[in-house]
Amino acid sequence: PQDTTTWDYDVQFDATGEHFWLASENGQVSSYAVATGEFINSINHTQPAHKLAFASDNTLYVLSNGIIYAWDYQNQKIKHTYDNGYLQDTIWDMSFNPSMTHLAISKNYHIELFDTTTWQSSAILDNNASTNQVLYLSEDRLITSGSSVILWDMANQQIIRSLEARYSHIAVNPQQDTVVIGLYEDGLMVIDPQTGDTINTIPQLGDPYDDANSGPNMSIVFSPDGNSVAWVHIWNIYVWDVNKNRFRYAIDNVGADWIDYHPSGDFLVGGVWDMDHKLVVWDASTGEEIRRFDTIPSAGYHPRTGTLSPDGRVVAIMEGDIYLFDFETGNLLTTITAHKGDVTGITFSPDGRYLVSTSDDGTIRVWGIAP
Questions:
Q1: Hey, is 350 helix, strand or coil?
Q2: Averaging pLDDT over each range in 146-155, 259-268, 317-326, 336-345, which range is the top one?
Q3: CA 173, CA 2: separation in Å to the nearest integer?
C-alpha cells in the first residue's frame, strides 16, 4: 500500500499491537492493520517524519524536521508541539576518546558526548563558538575548532583556553603532547594541550602577496612517528620537520582536498580533484608521486574528505555518500548510501573495528568493518 518511491524512516506498533505506524519522507504517518496489511488512516506533516514514539496515555509523538508533534491520533488532533531547534543542528565532526568509552560530536555551538556502551547521550557542552572540528587529545583533553579554537578540560567539563582563529584546523601529534592549529593565512600555531600555552609558530608558506594563496591551512596531519606535520594550503601540500623546526618539501599544484599519512609512515595519501578525480599516493620522505587511482567516475565528484583505517587497508572517502577503497589496488570495496542527507564527517575507531559517520540528516551511524 505504500508508495515505493517514498522513504520510510521509522515503524512502531501501537499499544494494542493490532496496528503498526510508518513515518515517511513525505511527512505522512500512516497506520496499517497487522493482520491484513490494510491501510487504516494517516496524519500529515509539512516536512519529513523521521521518528515515532507512543506514550502510555496513547499519545503519538512524531519528530518531523526538528519539531516534535504530540498527537491524539485516535481523533487525529495535535495536542502539543515542541520546537526544539537543537535537533536541527547539523553534525559536523566526531572523535573517540583514547579508551573508546565516549564519542564526542560537534553540533554547531554544542558538543554532545555519547557513551559507547549504550550509544546514549551522556552530556551536552556549550562550546561558545561555531564548531566544525572536534578532536580528543587525551582522556581529559578535547579541542574544537570553527569560529574559535577551544581547549576543554573534560574531567571537569571546563574551558581551559579560547583562541580567536577563524576557519582553523587542528591536529595532535601521536605522543599527544603538542597540538597544531592551522590559521587562516597566518601559518600554524603549536600549543601545549594541557595548559593551552603557545609553544611554537610555523610561518605561512607560499607567496603572501599572491591573492591566489589566500585561504586556510587545512587537513593537518602528523606522521605516525610525530617527526613531520603535513597540511594543505590552496593548491599545495607542505611538509614540516618538527624536530628540526624547518621546512622539508612542498608538493605543488596538486589541488588536494585532504591528506592523511599511512600508518606505516611510508606514504602520504590524498584526494585530488581535476578532470580525472584521483586518489593519489606519495612517498612520505620525498613527496614523489608513487601511484594514483580513479575514484568515482561521476560528473562533479571530488573527494572532499578522506581518512585511512588504522591498519592502512582501507581508504574511506566522503562526498555526499561514503566510498571505501582498497589502499593497495585502489578498487572500490563498497559504497554506503544509507544516510538520507549529505555525509558531513567520517572517522575510524582507534581499533579499526568501526567507521562512524555523521550527516546533515541529523544522525550518527556506526558501521562494522570486516577484519
A1: coil
A2: 259-268
A3: 52
